[in-house]
Write a structure and sequence with these properties.
With 175 residues, the chain is mainly α. It is built from five helices and four strands, in the order H-H-E-E-E-H-H-E-H. The strands form two sheets. A two-stranded antiparallel ribbon has the order 1-4.
């Protein structure tokens, strides 16, 4: 459910913080990414997050480890030699998942009311993010990875729409 107290300034700040974190992780690697993501998430939890939202960040961190960790184990990514979370993927890639979760109840909250738009957004912007990030970070992608990520992100977004879209629509009707 969206936080009804989010002002346009908070929503734009939320979106800008995510984008800063994305660039810090992709261009700066795991060290800069960890520092930047820690600051962004701490500020998010202090300034913007609704009660219990930390669970979503933890859940997306676990989901990211499962999804991108599985893709990495299947040979979807060609990473340079660097320290990896549980031996499967660089920390900077994993950090993008809880960063994304900071958008779910705020800047992207409106999207969950429109399931097909959410699916289309996930199926296109997910793979585009991986493609752009890989190009900037010097990561090789297997030919099958982007279609697989399109499917994964379409499923994630439809699940978010089912879970959050109905409650948001009900709140709007109650007003």
């Amino acid at each position: 459910m969206a936080n009804r107290t989010d002002s346009p300034v908070k929503m734009l700040t939320n979106l800008a913080a995510f984008q800063i974190g994305w660039f810090a992780c992709v261009l700066g690697g795991s060290g800069i990414g960890l520092l930047t993501t820690t600051v962004i998430i701490a500020l998010h939890l202090t300034w913007l997050a609704r009660s219990g939202e930390w669970r979503w960040l933890v859940g997306f961190a676990a989901l990211g480890l499962a999804v991108d960790g599985g893709m990495a184990l299947a040979g979807g990514f060609g990473f340079a030699d660097e320290t990896r979370v549980l031996g499967v993927m660089p920390m900077w890639l994993w950090l993008l998942w809880p960063l994304f979760a900071t958008l779910v109840h705020h800047s992207l909250a409106w999207l969950w009311q429109y399931p097909w738009l959410a699916v289309l957004g996930g199926a296109t912007s997910g793979p585009l993010s991986y493609y752009g990030g890989a190009r900037l970070a010097g990561v090789d992608l297997a030919p099958w990875l982007l279609p697989a990520e399109a499917l994964v992100w379409a499923l994630i977004c439809i699940a978010l729409s089912w879970r959050l879209g109905n409650s948001l629509a009900l709140n709007n009707q109650a007003r």
